[in-house]
Structure formats: C-alpha cells, structure tokens
Protein 1
Amino acid sequence: MQKVDGIRHAESEAYCYTGTTKKEEEMNMKLRKLTAVLLAGAMTLSLAACGGAESSDTAKDSKAADSTAVKTKVLTPGTDAANTETSDETLTVGLASEPSTLYAVAAGKTENEEQIIGGTLVDTLVSVDYSTNEVLPNLATEWEWIDDTHCRFKLRDDVTMTDGTLLEAEDVVYDCNELWVGLNATNDIGKYLVGATAEDEHTVVIEFNTAAPDFLIMLSWSSCGIVTEDEINAAGGIEGVQTNPMIGCGKYKFKEWKNGQSITVERNDNYWNKDYAGYYKTIVFTFTSDAAAREMAVESGDADVAYDMPVSQAATYAESDAVNTAIYSFGQEIHLWYNMGDNAGSTKEQKVREAIDKALDFDAIAQVGTAGFAGAADSYWDSGCTFYASAYTSEERAVDVEGAKALLEEAGYADGLEITALGLQDITPVLTVMQANLAEAGIKLTIDTPDTAQFVEGAFGGDYDLICIGDTPNVRIPANVMPFLQKLNVEGPGMVIGGPKWTTDEIDTTIQNMVSESDADKVAEYAAELDKIVKEQTICSNLYSEMKASVLAKDLKGFNVRERGFIDVTQLYK
Amino acid sequence: MAKMHTPAMEKIEKRNAKRKKPVKSTPAYESWKRFKRNPTALLGLAVVCILILIAIFAPLIAPYGYQTQDYSAMMQAPSSAHFFGTDQFGRDIFSRVIYGARYSLIIALFCTIAAFFSGGLLGIIAGYCGGIVDTLIMRVMDIFQSIPMIMMAMCIVAVLGNGIPQLVAAIMFASMPTMARNNRAAILRVRGSDYIESSEAIGVNQVQMIIKHMIPNAVGVMIIYFVGFLAVSIMMMSSMSYIGVGLAAPTPEWGLILNDGKAYLTSAPYMMLFPAMMIMITCFAFNLMGDGLRDAFDPRLK
Amino acid sequence: MFKYIIKRILYLIPILFGVTIIIFALKTFTPGDPARQILGNSASEEQVQEKREELGLNDPVVTQYFHYIKDIVTKGDFGDSYRTGKPVLQEILPRLATSAKITLGAVIMGALIGVLLGIISALKKYTVVDSGVLVVSMFFQSVPEFVIALVLIMVFAVNLHILPANGIDTWQGYIMPMLCIGLASVASYTRITRSSMLEVLGEDYIRTARAKGQSEKNITQHHALRNAMIPVAQSVGTSLGNSIGGGMVLETVFGVPGVGKYIVDAITQRNYPSVLGGALIIAMVLTIINLLVDISFVMIDPRLKTTIISGGAKKTPRKQKSLKAA
C-alpha cells in the first residue's frame, strides 16, 4: 500500500521540478554504487545472524525432539493447597476476545469468555470436584431425588446476595422458570428443565424432562448461577444486566466494563463461605486475540494469566523458566466423523470408512493435536470418563496402508478417491497430517477451512465427507453423550453441527439408557456396547483427548479448573 | 515509410551498419540505459531473476517435497540435513520456502495482472476518454476506495471462500481503485504534456501520436506501478494469512508458512525467520527495482 | 472555494450510497446465516427461521436496503449489533476515536522520522549516510507488519520491560502500535522529503540566498525546509485518511480496541449492521479528512489551488470541463 502511495505523492511534486546537472548525475551514480554495497552487506549480515541463531538453537531443540513421550513439566489442576491469605493485589487475566455480554443467560446463549468472567460473580446450588466428578454441597446443603426427574434441594439460610438480601427458595424458582427455561429453551441449560417449585422458604424442587443423574453436575455450571429477580431489576432488567451484572452471591462482584479494553471484578467481602479466601482484591480481564502477544504479556509481567492458548504454542513454553504452562485435558475427545447421511458421498460405504481408518496415523495425529501431551485415543470415551475402557488393540490402531488400499479396491476406488474435510482454522494441523496419511493410500483429501459462519452452515447441512468434532461425555447429560448419534439430533428438531447425520434405533436406545442409568457398572456396560457398535461399523475414528492450555506467571499458585476446563481464577494466589 | 533506394543511400546504410552502436533513441532504450547504470536497481533485478529461477527449478533445488511429513524429525533447528530446520510436521522448511517462491510469486503476479486488467484498464479508459466516462469511472472508484483494502478483501473471501483464484479476486477488487487512479494519472500526464499538446496543435495524426508518444511514455510509469504492486500484493497476502483468510493449508505460500511459524516465535524462531526473510528480500528487491525503474522511466521524479 | 467545499460535501452522498450498495450486494451473496450465528449451534431450524423473520432477513434485499436507508436518514439509526444488541454507532465511535488517535500518532511519528531521514540524506546526498538511510527506511516497508509488531513486543515489553505488551490502559500502550504503523511509512516520507529538498535546494531563491552570504544552516532552516515540506504535508494528509480503517492486523497483535478489528470480527460473525455501519462511518471520515486536508492546503499555499481543485490533473482542458459537468 505504502509503495503505491509513495509513487502517487511523488507524482504530485513534479510541478516544481528543476533539472539535474551533469555533476549531480555522476554523484548519483556514486550513491547508487554505495547503496548497492550497503544492501549486499545488510543481506549478508542478516544471513550471518541466522547462522548464529542456528548453532545456539541446535542443542536445545534436539533435546526437545527426543522427549516425544508424554511431557510432564506442566501444571496439573488442583495440586496446590487452597489459599488462606488475602491481599490488595490485582490479578490480570488475558483473554482471547471480549465477551458480548456479561450475563449470557439473559441473552439466551452461552459464551466461553462470559463463563470465565461470569463464573466469578455467581454461585451455584452444588459444586463439583472435577478430579473425581463428585457433587458437593454449595448453596444447597443437601438434596435427594424424589423420582427420576424430580430433585429436592435444601438451601442454606445465610447466603447474602449483592443487594444485601438473603437467598430464598423463590429466587431459585425465578431463575429456573423465568431465566433458564424462559430464556434458554434452546441451549443446554433450558433444554432439559421443566421448572421449579418452592416447598418452603428454603426448599425447592427442580423438575427435569428426562432422567439423568448427572443433571446435578449441570447445575454446578456457571450458567446455572443463582440470582434474584430484584437484583436483575436493580441492574436494569434483562437488557441492562448484561452490561451491568451486579448480581449473584459469588466470590467476586462486578466493578467495571471498559468497552473493548477490560472488565474488572472485585472481591466479595460478604461471601457466605468463610472458608474461602480470595487472594486478589481485584481481577482484571483484558482482551488480546493474538496468542503470542498474550503470552508475551505474561512473560513481561503485564499479565498473570494468558488464557486459552493454542496447545502447540503453549507447549513451547513447557520448558520455560520465565512462565508456568498449564496443559490439561477436560474430558473431551475429538472424533473424526464420516458423513453417512442423505447427502453423503463415498463415506457411506463402510469399506471406504475402514480404509480411511486404516490409513490414518493416529499417533502422529495425536502428537500434532496435543503437542505430545496425549497419545492416540483407544476408545470412543475419553480416558477421563469413569466408564472409560480400552476398546482397540494397538494393532488395530496401527497404520495399514496396504490394507487400506485393498479395501478401497474392493469398494471400487482402485483409481483413487477424492474427499473433503470440513474444519475450523484451529484443526488445520490435524487435517494436514490426515491429508499426508491418506495420500499414501491414494486418497486425495481437500481441506476446507472456511470462516466460522460458513463452517456452521456446512456442518449443519452435512456438506462434508469428514469432520472433526469432539464431545464431553464425562458429564452424562443428553447433550454430552454421543449427541451426534441421537435420533432427536439427527432427525430433528434438535440439530447438531457435524456428526455422521445418521443413526439407528439400537444406538439411540442405548444412549438413552446410558444417560438415565445411575449404576456405575451398568453405565460401563452400555458404554462398552456403544464403543463396539462404533468400532464395528466404523462410524467414527477416535483421535485424541482435546487439551486446553494456558500460560501463567511463574509465582502463581492454586491452579484449578471448573466445568469445561475453564480456569477458576478465584482460586489463584501467590 | 517507404525508403529511397539510390546507390548513395545504400552506401551510407552500409557504413551505418558497420558501426558498432546504431544511433537509436527510443524512450524504452533510453530508460534501459539509465536503468543499467543503476547498481541498486540492477541488484533488485538480479534478486528478482534469482527468485524466478528458484521458482522455476523448485523441484530440482528442494531436497524434500513441500508436503512430505516426517515425525522422526519434528521441530528441528537448521542443520545440514534441513537447511532452514523443520516445522511441527517434520516438513523441511527450506523446501517449503523454495516451493513457496513458486506460489507467492505466481499469486502475486496474478494479483498484479488482475489488478491491472481491472483497475488499470478502467484508469486508462478514464484517463484517455475523459469527459463523462472519466467522471463515471472515477466516482465508482471513489466508492471502492472508501472501503479499506483489507476489509474489502475479507468481504470478497467471505463470499467466494478460500483458494488461490478467490484470493486473487479479493486482492484485485481491493486494489482496483488505487490502480485505476495511478494509471489514469499516468495517461493524463502524458496527455497534458507540452509535446502532445503541441503535436495536437500542429495536427499530427492521432493514431501515430498514441503509438509513438503516449503509449511508450505512459507504459514506463505503469511498469513502475506494476513492479511496486508485486511487493504490495505479497505483503497483503501475508496480512490476510495472519487474519486467517485466503489460502488453505498446506499451500506453501510464504505468508502462510510465516503464520504457521508465528506460534513458535520464542522456542523455534527459525520457523518464522526464514519465510519472513524471503518476504523481506522479495519485497526489497521489488522496491529497489521499482525505484530504479522510476529513475529510468521518469528522471524528473527521482 | 466555498462552492468547491459544498460540492465535495455533496459528493459524500453518492459515495455513501455506493458503499451501502456494495456491502449489501456482498451480503446477499455471502454464505453463512447470521440468525444461526446469533442463536448458537444447538438451535433448531424453526428457531432460526423465527429469528430470521425477526431480523427481517427473509424480506427481499431491496426491502431490507430500503429499511436500512430509511432508518439512517430519518432516525440516524445505524441498527443494532447482532452480537451485543447495542446500537452500532455507540459501539463504533469510541473505537474510531482510538484508531484515530493511533493513526494520528503513527503518521506524525512516521513523518517525523521520515522527514528527518530525508533531510539527512538530502544534505549528505550521494554519501554512505544517504544510502544507509535508504536501506533502513526500506527495511520496515518490506517486512510484514505483524512480524515487526511481535519483535517490538519481545524487545520492549519482555526484555526491556519499558512498555506494556498490549492494551491501551496507559498512554505507553499507544507507543508500540504507533511506532509499528509509523515505521512502515517512513520509506515513502524519506523519499518524498529527499527529492523535494533536493529540488528546493536547486531553486533560484536559494542560490540568491547563498549569493547574499547566508549561512548553510540558515538556508536549510529558513528557506529550503519550509518549502520542501509542502509535498510531505500533503502526503501526511492522505495517509491519515487511508490508514484509519486499515489497522486490523496491528490492532489484533496489540489488543487495541480499534475500528479495523471491530469490522473484521463483524465480517466473520456475519454481524451485518456492524459491517455496514463501520464501512459507512469509515467512508465518511475518510472523505471528510481528505476534504479538510485539501482545504487547509489551499489556505496555506494558494499555488496549490489549481492542483487540488482540478483533482491533481494539470492543465487538461477536458478534465476541467468534466468537473463542471459533474
């Protein structure tokens, strides 16, 4: 751009031109020769500089390349003791983007950034120990299932909300009926709820529309935070509360939202649970979408946490002495789905799917997808699930190009096959590996990575042969357990993006059984059954446990995670 | 022009033919003479020639395929086996950068040609025809120019999707107004120059004037823009790769390689360094050449 | 002159119409349903249709266009952002101010460095210094801006700890983005300054001043510099307008809430009210800045009147005619 501009301006100066003399012409020549020499010098210098960089890097990197096995020098959630001190310091958390609202429940949607920030403001009926998936009392001291779909909660009587009032059963009824069901009927919160009724001032019964014991875990998500109607009205109603969320009884209170720059929350000194001590008086969330810049802010001391780093990028700091790196799985496994629906192409044939499965190098895929922090998956279920059991032998997971070619020939694609994989930008590296793998077997894979809107449209319409999508079945609610193979989702009205666009009654019933079962052994049985079906028909290829990564300041302790792998910033301390 | 054939004339012609240098002075020849005397411009030209050769003979130069992945050699620092190191797939960065010359230069060339044939042509038409045609074209270009270049390019990619032709179209649309303006100005300057005006006044044949004077004079300036725009389009491609629109993996376009390497800025700087250097050297060369061409074609502009 | 200003302001109207038409045309052909973007991935087809109806996306494009224009003209309403539900204008204006601040600083910084280098190379013409300046200024023009940005963060924030890595909470946060945009334009300013200085130094009045025995320093400072700055100042004006909306890459790296990044995000989210509003406001600002720049130059230096008012074309009779016709 600049170049072209320069020419244009230069042109307009010509009006006051005077000619160059002979002497100047000669001088001009001399100048140019000098410039040429200088330029050549600069280029050699920069080349030499690279040469210097090479030699110093060699030693370090060959060492890194050796340790291809699972790496360990990263933080694991929940290893530090809880904080006991308080201070007046400020914690700065660098997020990738700015949330569109600070109370997504009021907008009828869910949003990652909102959940990270909103989770500090609201508290939930129950909490969960994410290392064991055990449900713990929180705002509710105890609960019991009346039947499969009704659960009775006893509330604490000493919980103060932001407006100074005490929490009552009627408030939970309002949240459930007006907010979760009323405004969020389409998403995971409202989809499974029927409503709530108050039995007395501190007892409330919540009704679900299907049976699933893990619904209790769902109630610990920050989108099920407890607020009161008065608070919402005081904050400006459903519209106003989204920018001014003075609500909840959480560990922190909303303070300020500087549009485009930062969001500040302040420690709630009236927090009901006196066992909790928040180290930081204020937490500031800032927004930088460039991951490298976000990390460098931590390294320079401007920020304490660089949230949501690409795993491959975070992995490069695993050995760093300047920062701590957290790389962890959160119960989500990525699967490669084959389109088997109405507008499916060659992947409708099982032989083709098997051939692709045989040709893929799952170890390489896992290596690239998790930067070496997890191996190839050997079950549909993530290894973090309680009902996980290995379903594949290592021979079955090995690369078998000849076998793949033979299958393709049987299916009538001896001359080659062309397929497309649809994905978002961040999955491109994994698809790049697949592309090379499949090329060995004579399959030409085209990688289609459009922008989010186009991806969603394509993934909805089944406009792909292959698609990589994950699910988090460790919480057994209907939305999480094999959503892509549920009748409701495949045939409508509930639609999901991606998946095979195909299912059978048998699969659907088994999924329903697995969701509603409370006996752990039975659950494991259903899980194994589903795993077998998926494997026998090659409905999908299991890739790897998805990893989340963040970079934290060196002196930061108390690293813990919440639902879906969000960092619990309220637990951090120095 | 018919030549006279008298014995005397033939004698003179023979004598002229014996002379080492024919006395010839076309604007192009004069420009070449000026260009030749300019070492920085020649250096630019030499680098560009080398780059073109690299692009043509990429398969012979590159020791590995640009797509060949090797999981036993991931993220290796530069060594004798991998001159520029390897990336997270174990692909040889040197080979990718060499093939990248092919992709980047060709895409840049296509973008420039496309921009010339759309915006450039419109500018020439506007400048030459003048009057209502000029007004109409330039007002439309004003509208296009009010939309920032990258935003325009992104909108086009959102409509057309990713891919090389789509990227070329996007950059073409985005740069149309600038191209039109520059070319129109070039034509107008030639039109407005004194010798054209005086030729017009003394009634020189229009066609002859266009061929003999206007085109050679305007083409010089247009070549300057052409070369300058090659650098601009390479820079634009890298910006678009950064935002994540334009080309899909594993195309070894420099901007994409650079963007892939960005993740490893601190741990493996060579992944970013080499593609960045190629972009720099190429743009440097084009800019130097452009500077030299400007001096050569238009000594008044310096 | 007054007539000229009025005419230029009236020009704004067809330009703005043109911009809306282009964006609306692109919007029609762009795949990706905004309604689905708003509702999220688990919404059913029915709900998406309902939302489309609510947003008026099922109306014919012409009707949509008409409504959009009507709201702007009658109510000054650019619509509400699909993402946040807030009025577009309210979201854009603070971002525009941020971008404007950075652009202004960058142009000043770039021009200062460029002019300084240009003067040095003009005074030390045909020496090592001169060619050194050329190489340095061209370097920043030839490296992708985000590479320079990341290197700057690495040096000034991570290693030296003197500037914040990102964000614009403090005034120091503005320095690196300004420097980055500024450095990229140094080359063109250097070139313009150098050639313009050389030209001015060869003018008659400079020779006269020399003959009168004035010191070289005095000549440079009082005579040459002032006149040589006119083309530089002109190009400062133009780049000011051009780079306001074009900073999305650097705004992304430095975490700056600018208007460029706002529009890029809006495009990927299919947030059409924001795209349209952003494009319109940028077009307006661009045109107005260009007009102000042109007017101020005519005021400062009446010699430029012909050049500017006839749109850069010099003494082309046809051009003059066409302007009258327009």
Note: The mean pLDDT of chain B is 83.
Protein 2
Amino acid sequence: MTSKILISKKKLEIILNRLCHQLKEKHGDFSSTILVGLQPRGTLLLDRLSKILNRQGFTNLKLGKLDTTFFRDDYRRSDTPLSANKTEMNETVEGMNVVFIDDVLFTGRSIRSALTAIDTYGRPNSIELLVLIDRRFSRHLPIQPDYLGVQIDALQGDRVRVVWSNKPDQNIVYLEKSNE
Amino acid sequence: MKKLSVSHLLGIKYLNTEDFNLIFETASQFKEVINRPIKKVPSLRDITIANLFFENSTRTKLSFELAEKRLSADIINFSASQSSVSKGETLSDTVKNILAMKVDMIILRHPNPGAAHFLSKNLNSCIINAGDGTHEHPTQALLDVYSLIEKFGNLKGKRIAIVGDIKHSRVALSNIYALKMMGAEVKLCGPKSLIPKHIECLGVTSSSDFNQVLNWCDAANILRIQNERMGTVYFPSNREYSQNFGLNLDRLKQLKKKIIILHPGPINRGVEISSDVADSNQSIILDQVQNGVAIRMAIIYLLGSKLNIKINA
C-alpha cells in the first residue's frame, strides 16, 4: 500500500472555508436549515464546518448526527453484522432544509440509506448533499453532491483517508493506492 | 466488526461478555430508533418470523411482535390453544410445517424446559428462546441487566437480590447467569421451599431473611409466585407469603438507602409487591418493558444478520 497526499493541510483549510461560504450563500442565516453529519466520518467534517461557521458569528446552528446502518441495503450480505453508531437528532426536520454532510462520496449507497433514514424524523422541505471528496466514475446510484470539496479519479481498490487533527491547520487527506 | 458467538439464542448460559456488550450497544441504537417520530427501520424487510407461543404470554409476545414490526419483518403468530397441537401434533411436526412455508426465524415459548434446544438440534432454522418451562428466559435477563446498567453504569460489585419463587422461575436462572457474567453479586431470597437445593453451585448465596437481604442489596428483582407450575403447596397462604416476602412501602422506608426495584411481570399486586412500591419512583418496571423492545430488536437484528441471503445472480 502506497500513500500520497491528496489534499495538503493548507489547501484543505481553504476548501473548508469555501464550503462554508457556499453554505452561507445558499442558506443565509441558517434559521430553517439543519446540518446533518452522516455517521461515522461525516460527523467529523460537520464538527469542522460548524466550528468555522461559529467563528463567523453563526452560533445558533441546528446540527444533527445521523446513523444509517439500519437503513442500508447490504444487511445479510456479509458474515458480520453492520454495527451502528449513535444518532443525535434533537431537531425535527419537518419543513426544514437539510444538508447531509459526508467526507467521501463513493458508491452513493450510504446517501441513499440516509435519504430513507431522515424520513423517520419528518418530511424535510429539501435535502442537499455536501461532500469533501467526490470519487468520480464510481457511483452505483444516480446521486451527485450539491457542495463539493474536490473531485478525484481513483481506482476501485484505492482508499481515500481523511485525517482530522485537533489543530485546525493539521487536517490532511491521503490517497492510499493498493499495490496490485 | 463483531458478531454474536451463537446462531440461536437458547439461553444466557451460551453467551459471553462480548455478546452481551454487542447486544447492549445495538439495543442502545434501537432505543433511539423507537423514540423517533417514525419508529420503523427496513433492515428485516425480507425476513419472516414465526412467533410460536405454546404458553400464555402478554408482555413477551407483544414485545417480540413489536420488535419484529419495528424491524419491518413479516410475522406469523401461533398459539397452541387454537392449533393442531390440541389434535395431537408433535412440536417437531408443527414447526417443520411452519418452516415449509419459508419462515426464517422462530421465536419459541414452551412449557417444557429444553424445547428450544430440541428444535435447534433438529431443525435448520434460527431459534430464539422466549421462555422454556422453568429453564431459561434469556431476553428477560438481558433486558433486566440492560435496565440495571442504565441505572448503575456498571454492575461490577453491585449487589442484586432475586426474591420470590426461585424454584419455578426461568427468569431467576437466566438472571443469575447474566448478573454473574457482568460481575454482580447475587443473593436469592424466598421461602426455603422455593429455593432449589445446591443453587450455590452457580456462585450465588441465599437467605430467607427478606429485611436483611433488602438492607444488603442495591437492587431487588421481585418475582411472581408461579402457582400454575406448583404441583403441591410450598407455603401456607398468599397472605403469609406477603407478610414475609411481600415488598411494601414500610419495608422500603426502613432501609438506609434507596434501592432499585425490578419485576418481570405480570405483577400480583398485594402479594409479592404492593401497588405503592410497584408505582413508586424506585421501580423501573416500565423501563424494563421499554428496554425489552430494544433488546429484542437487537437480538433479532444480530441473529438475522447471520441468515445470509442467497440470491442466484
């Protein structure tokens, strides 16, 4: 397994700030918007984005963490059960504009399960998708992001690893190539 | 990722600590699900479950049925009194016929100890024991332990009393195995005639001094007197039993600490527990019922994931 830097620390900081600006452009004061991080790794991106927005004066953001395990389409298709993470949805989504936040968009199946899972909290007005990395040409379903960090081309066996640090300027994204 | 070490849930005896932790972690997520505005997940939409109840039940049957429905499984219900069992059909034949209708999982309650084991050895299906005679009631023990962990955080070193008809109680035996596995100290309490001989072999102590046991324990699981399983007289009268082993507010007030009260239901108010105690804030009886659905969802989900789907491409 060889690994190379896909997004440097400095560039990632710029991308995160840009995504926040795009969210502000579309959602204004976020009064009818709920930002939903998809478990497990989307919630880490949600933490970073909400911190940046907080610093810019958006302190009353409505945030949620959604686990989609029980809504996935691959139950009974592996030897081990799919293990769930914690869901924290304290806000109702009825009539709200929901933004799903995830780190990597690959096959689109997680997003499909999230679209079903969010319905259990009401009927949202709209749902958008924000992803940090879009792995192009690997989609199994017709799902595309509305807000995008970077688009990359990677082979099926490759792995995109987003490393979040406690220090904001130390976050970094690697592309791990399989040696086959 | 982790998986259960067993393919059937026949008893607590066959589970290990990792199984417990996995079941409890999964149940916590399902507890969140059943508190949502829409309480259903689609995981088991292609699984059919048969609830075979050869013995009367309210809570367990409703709880299993609700857990299955919350998981989107298809279900069929069966009760012995309205079936061909009364015409002389054997257990094995009844279940074989049900399985021929392409049922994936069996929830079995039966008056004979070992009925679930028998089926698991003779049939190719996933079996969940919902109580077999005086033997085990694993889902009840799991939900009791889960409810206690919610209150105490950890059961290591906690003192739990099981009070009442130990001899005829499957809840008692499953609870003993489960509580010991989680590191709790267990003391049994009841009339000597209702405490089985050699029960100390399971690593528990016993006493017939109810007040002393209440002072000793952090939580007490009060069991029902199972008149339907008693072939003979084990104590003179319900009134005398109630005076010696009935939990009432006066007894609780005399204690120096607040203890947690559990009861697996159904309650005989005024016999083993008084109404004011059953409805008090020390009682977690209704928490047990709510946790029961989450625990059963977790068990069905985890065992169901072992039924690997076979779709011919």
Note: The interface with chain B takes residues 67, 69-72, 75-77, 79-87, 89, 92, 116-117, 119-122 of chain A (CB under 8 Å).
Protein 3
Amino acid sequence: MADFSVQTSNAQSQAGKRALRWGLYLMLGVFAIFYLMPLFVMVMTSLKSLDEIRTGDLISLPREVTFDAWRTAWSGACTGIQCEGMRPYFWNSVLIAIPGVLISTLLGAMNGYVISQWNFRGANIIFSLMLFGCFIPFQVVLLPMARVLGMMGIAGTIPGLIFVHVIYGLGFTTLFFRNYYVTIPSELTKAAKVDGAGFFRIFWSIFLPLSIPIIVVTVIWQFTQIWNDFLFGVSFSQAGTQPVTVALNNIVNSTTGVKEYNVDMAAAIIAALPTLFVYVVAGKYFVRGLTAGSVKG
Amino acid sequence: MSPILEINNLYKSYGFTEILKDVNVSIEQGDFLVLVGPSGCGKSTLLNCIAGLEPITSGDLHIDGRNMTNVSPKDRDIAMVFQSYALYPTMTVAKNITFGMKVRGVDQATQDEKLAYVAQQLQIEPLLKRKPGQLSGGQRQRVAMGRALVRDPKLFLFDEPLSNLDAKLRVEMRTELKALHQRLGASMVYVTHDQIEAMTLATKIVVMKGGVIQQMGTPAEIYNRPANLFVADFMGSPAMNLIPAKTRAKGGEVHIEITRPNAEPIILTDANNGDLPQDVIIGVRPEHIADANAQNGEMQAAECLIDIVEPAGADTYAVMQLGGKHVTARLSSETTATAGVAQKLTFDLGKVSYFSPETGLRLN
C-alpha cells in the first residue's frame, strides 16, 4: 500500500518534471524568436528590391534576392552631399577602434598590475577614483573634453577620438585587470623580485602571459564600446573623420524623397557586423574570462 | 670570519603597530637557522626583512659582512622558497629554474649546465618541459627548491616550504632538506610554525612570540633548558608538563610539594637546586616521568592515579591530575598502567625546569 502510493507520486513528479522542461523550452523558444525577429526582418529587407518592399509583407522571404542595396550601402549611399556609402566611415571606425582598444587595454593592464601588486600609499583611493570614472555619464564630459582636445590641437581628428576613447575606457579596463590580478598571490611578485626581475620585467614576463582570459574580455568590451559609440563620434569628429555609427545616422536621415529601407537595413547590418564577428569568435572566452577571477587558476 | 647573517636591533612597524621589536640574530656559515613561533609572531615578516621584500624601520642587517639594510632583494645574493612555491605558471619547469639567470644575463651554456646539475640533484629531469599546473604538490616543491639551488646564493631563505604538503610527504621532504643542507654546507634561514620541523632541521633555533625573540639556541638547549614558560610549552610534543608546586628548603635540599585531587600531595626532593622561591612552576617533559621499575639514582617515585591511557605504538601516554593540571607521562609500550588504577611512577628531577609563576622566566 505504502509502496504503491510512493510509486504514483513518483510518476506524478516525473510527468510534472517533463511538463516543466517543455514549458522551459517553449519559453526559451519564444524569447529566441522575439530577439531574432528584428535581425531577420533586417536581413530579409536588405535583400529585397524597393518595389518588393512597397508591395510585400514585412516578414516574407524575398521573391528575388538582390545585393544591390548592400552595394549601394557600402559604396554609393549619400550622407548629405557626398555619396560614398559607408566605406570611408567604416575604415575611420577601424582606425579609431583598433588603436583605442590596444592602448586602453595595455594601460589598464599596467594600472591593474600597479594597483594590485605594488602596494603604495593611496593605491585604494586611486582605484576608487578610477572606478568612479566608470559611472560618469558621457554627456558630462563633452564640453570639458572639447576644450582639452582643442588645446591639444587634435580636435576633430582621428587621434583625438582615440584619445577620448582611451581616457573613457581606462576606468573599465583598470577595473577588469585589477580584479584579475588581486587573485594572483603576491608571493609570485616577491619570487620574481628575488630572482632579480624589475617592475617591467615582471609585468611582461609573468603577468601579461597570465592574462589571456582577461585580455580577451577587455578587448571585447572595449571594442564594442568604441565601435558602437555615437555620442563621442558625433561630437568630436568633423567631415572625413566620422565613425561608422555617425555615417549610418546620416545615411538614414538624409535621403530625399523615397525612403530606401533596403539600403538603410544593409547599412545598419554593415555597421553592426564587426561587433557581431568579435562576439562569435571570442564569445566563449568572454564568458570564461568574466568568471575567471572567481576560480583558482 | 664574519657571520654570514647578522641582524642588530631590528625594529619593524606598520603604521603604529610594532611587528618586530629589537631583534638580534647572528649565524655562521653553514648554519641552519629556524625561526619558529605561533602564527602572527612576526617570523615571516623577519624573513621578508632579511630578503629585502619589506623595509626595516630601524636597525641594520649584514649578509656576509656587507651592510644590506637598504639593498634591494636582487642584490642581496639570496634565494627564497615560498609557502605557495610561487612558480611562474606560464613557464615550463626549466624556464622557471633559469628565469633568474636569464634576467641577470647569464649566457645560455652556463644556464644549461646549471639547470642540468640542479635537475639531477633534485631528480626532476623528466619534469623539465612541463608547466607547474601539471605537477603534484611534492614536485612543485622540488622545482621551487631547484629555482633557489641554481642560484648558489650566500643565504637560502625558506618560508614554511613544507606546510602545503600532506603529512607523509612532509616528513620525506624534511629528511631530504636536511640531507641537502649537509651536502651543500649552505647557510639557511627557515620559517615554520611546526616545532618538530624546527627541532629536526635546525642547528640553531629562534623562538618568537609577539615580535620578540623568546630564546635563541641549539635545539638541545631550547628543548632541555627553555628560557620561559612560553618556550617550554611551545617546543616539544606532547608539550612539557607545567605543574604549579610549593617548595620548602631543608638543609641544602628542596622539598617540592605537588597537590593531587583526593590524595596526599606528592613530595619530591631536589638536592641540586637549593635556592628557589616558595611558589614555582615545575616543568617536566613527559619522557622524564617513567614506570618505577626503570631505576635511576636521581629519580623519585610516587603512586599516581592514572586517568587515561593512550597507546601510540612505540610509546604509551598516561594522563593524570597533578597540581590541578593534566600531566602526561611517556611510558614504554610494555607498561602495566591502567586507567583508574594507581601506578608507581618516577620523576627525573635532574632534568626538570623551574619557572617563576609571576614572570614566567626560568629559575634554575
């Protein structure tokens, strides 16, 4: 009797578990569709001709696949009076993002190394202040930054934009590296000192080789931030040095008469591709690196 | 010849907290100095001061006659082995061992030659291409040792190097370390909180507490003639029995009276120590209380009620109540001692220590 009742309750809980599992999948499926729908619409629209867009359904597949819109977006779309497409601005963004990412990552690593491993008076205060820098909204620094760039003579130039992004990213990169390096026992530094290594030697030979996971995290984070930035890009650039985000805005907003949705969509995808690429290639390191500090290496 | 390490009036403080107070140490070439004490006694800080990893607040420090007080670690001609081993995780074992030479610009041929020699000495040749993450605790320990050996320094420093190993391996490595010291004839300073390690390895022991040196001496001196109650209690396992007692002088001899629960006090007679205050703490090592049949002229017998008997293989420990304390006797394994039964035991008064209950200092 007792056995029987236990069995039925087991069977019930089995069925309950299965129902729960399916409910979970259903929910996840719905969310996935919800998130993927905009991308789907963008890709489909970018592959259609304008006629088809006007007559067809938003989510239908293209009757005839054409890459004309992509070609126009890349090299022919007009931003104001110039009609060179996204291409020059895409390269501007590359020229800003790559040095910006490298410099801010390297400086962040150095800062984190100093703050976590070379105890000096006020190290914690300096770290707190840098951390505070992470929470200052972009808008607050716009005017002072414009003054500083002017005084330095790099206003409206690509080096100027690199400078802005390095300064603004330093708080984050320092935080990442500092939190990673505090988990490394100080005996490692001591051993290296006894071995005769100096400040930079210890950094290059011992700490940087240890930092691959956190470097990946920082590079993804900084690349995404710098590539996707619009406010600094629009504020501190001039014609010829604008990044891809600003160009996208100009293409979408400066059409005359007919709205070329397919070109707009293609341009938007072009602007988003590099960050998408970085995530796909290094995404698993990103997740691994974010939790790297919490486990013993 | 000047001492290999000489420390004079060393003080070390962090802010207002004094970590080390008036430390004076001197060792000769070939000495194995062990700094021992409970955690927080400042022994590791002292080692870091010797290494130059912590600045000294005042005092001075000489290595082989040269004043090293303000010299950076790399120029002190020392090598150090750390508790966590501190191997460079991204380098192979070979690179770990040669890193110091590489930094100092030693040519490749010499590097290879020294690496081969050290690897052979420590039997780690098969490990040279591995990374530290692929090694066991004992192997990492050997590599850390190799990194120090390859430098051939004036002074080796060890910061609790065996404390992360399991018990069996620790004993093995202890023996190996001792053999290594004898073979190399090198000067070593070794920090540990394990008093057995201190006894077995040292040629000279410094017992520390609260940043102050309690006693410095050979292992035998420390063990047989502890300078105060702290040293007496800390060194030796099981610990020295410290029994409160009253003394009465009687014609050049001293009668020592130890109270017992529900029985007459034990009266022992010490002919060698005439000049003792009335209240003392008598310190008796467990091995100096024995079964009465093992006779010796200086020993005196008393019937004692045994509370607990703990056989430990080679020895049997018997615990009783004397002077309000648990007292442990180390008897032979053939003892007839039984819990709850009185046993005639002898006390070897030739080897006891007397301490003042007020100051804790040694009296005899």
Note: Chain A touches chain B through 18 residues (CB under 8 Å).
